[in-house]
Write a structure and sequence with these properties.
There is one protein chain. This protein has 47 residues and is mainly α. It has one domain. It is built from 2 helices and no strands. It is elongated, with a radius of gyration of 11 Å.
């Protein structure tokens, strides 16, 4: 069984950070169709 690995996760976080930080109530949609790795990382960085 192959384990899913989020691709370009760090780059996505880097690109999203300015928009998330300047918004008092940001909404982020993870449409990567994986296993939620991007969503998990975003929620960990921006609880």
């Amino acid at each position: 069984m192959q384990v899913h690995k989020s691709v370009m996760l760090d780059r996505c976080i880097t690109l999203l950070t300015p928009a998330i930080e300047r918004n008092s109530n940001p909404i982020v949609i993870d449409a990567t169709l994986g296993l939620g790795g991007h969503s998990k990382a975003i929620l960990e960085k921006f609880p």
